[in-house]
Specification:
Layout lengths: L10 E4 L3 H12 L4 E4 L23 E4 L5 H11 L3 H8 L1 E2 L4 E4 L1 H13 L4 E4 L11 E3 L7 H11 L4 E7 L2 E3 L9 E3 L8 E6 L1 H13 L11 H7 L9 H7 L25 E7 L6 E4 L8 H8 L10 E3 L2 E8 L1 H4 L12 E3 L9 H19 L12 H12 L23 H25 L22
Parallel strand pairs: 1-2, 1-7, 2-6, 7-16
Antiparallel strand pairs: 3-5, 4-5, 8-15, 9-13, 9-14, 10-11, 11-12, 12-13
Helix pairs in contact: 1-11, 2-11, 2-13, 6-8
The structure holds flavin-adenine dinucleotide (FAD).
Length: 469
Amino acid sequence: MSKRHEGLPAVTVVGGGLAGCEAAYQIAERGLQVILREMRPGTMTEAHRTSKLAELVCSNSLRSDEPGSAPGLLKEELRRLGSLVMRVADQTSVPAGKALAVDREEFSQRISNLIESHPSISLVRDEVQELPEGITVVASGPLTSATLARALGEVIGDHYLYFYDAISPIVSSGSLDMAALFAASRYGGYPAYLNAAMGESEYRAFRTALLDGERFPLREFESLEEASRDVPYFEGCLPAEELARRGEDTLRFGPMKPVGLTDPKTGRRPYAVVQLRPENRACTMYNLVGFQTKLVRKDQRRVFRMIPGLERAEFLRYGSVHRNTYIDGPRCLKQTLELRARARTYIAGQLCGVEGYVESVASGLVAGINAARLARALPPAVLPLTSMVGALLNYVTRDAPWRHQPMNANFGILPSPDEDVRGKARRKAKAERALRELEEWMGRQEESGETWPASGSGAAPRLQMGWST
Ligand SMILES: Cc1cc2nc3c(=O)[nH]c(=O)nc-3n(C[C@H](O)[C@H](O)[C@H](O)COP(=O)(O)OP(=O)(O)OC[C@H]3O[C@@H](n4cnc5c(N)ncnc54)[C@H](O)[C@@H]3O)c2cc1C
């Protein structure tokens, strides 16, 4: 821990989940007092079962730990930055092949013990109903209590606060067969979309495959009936397979409508069309417009690769439909995760628009660093955009050109490498640059007085970057 800053007001962290625990630890390790407020067990969420901090609400897997994968790179960066959650995840791992899975009980018990015994953290068990005064990190998660969500909505504007994810898959542009697609917007104008035309038999086969696909089960609190009762606009975000179920042509009158488009190969309007919209300014990622889905991942790959031009698509993010409270980051947040509408309040975790356990941890770590820097009157920290953590937060605060949808770690959000390489070599070049530039950045921060918690040393990587074939 760095020297203690006596006399400075305590920083408040709302929510003792993955992001909140990481943020509290980062702030406390920088010598500041932290008040961590967690509403459980007095008030529970629909998914949590215990009073423990950092409870994993679903899977015990933190996804791939392969250094050559995007989630593996994210984990490695967090280890170097001194993440508490990653340290405990490594200590409590269970065999899971190439993934990092943890013993969920031991994982959250250890984090609870470390937070509760930390000399600079006071844990308060209460439900926060108003945004606290002073420097605050709000990390109340995808199931933020209704009262706090209302208070946040009043500050940022209700239309920037969402209660459901309706996420369409994202594919990498390099994996598309461009010869099979045509660029156009409906009724002309700037050709903003890539379009995949389908004939009648292709459309029918595609619809049948959608209907036959295996789906993730909905939890009770995520049912569509519940959803449409709470959220009137949810009807506009129905899963594609649900649209397919409603009728032979429902998709053709919905996301696959061909009106206003002419296939240059035939000179005619196609029978049906799938539109792909650029997901970032560099156009390295494309979103399948309107294809939010509850299909399991293997069936997303199988079904969506039936679309002409997507036969070899690389999926950077899979589709989903989830109960999830989150804000429109690009409209509401500075790159440091501070709210534009309320200085000194940072948003972290799933609430800031990242998707996933480890991504939530990453945003908690950066919000914690920045809250601690603000308290010590240091300039804010923005991680290199070439690092996975930096690129992810850049995406959720700046890069999404449309209504924001939550984003996970993937290689598509990292800028192109200098070398003109493809496939695995390209990912390797991006990952090596990410770690190199992160370490250089950490070194520069140290020169200006920044410190890292015990395990955060850029000089001592736990993993070598290895590349399996
Ligand atoms: C049902 C469900 C299943 C998921 N499954 C997975 C999965 O398998 N893998 C994956 O990677 N991601 C999953 N996610 C997404 C996400 O990664 C996790 O929800 C993750 O826990 C988010 O971390 P967080 O810190 O943002 O929120 P959380 O870990 O949920 O922490 C938020 C904390 O804030 C507390 N809180 C809420 N409101 C208040 C308040 N007003 N005052 C005080 N405390 C408050 C909550 O009790 C909670 O402890 C799932 C999400 C949901 C909803």
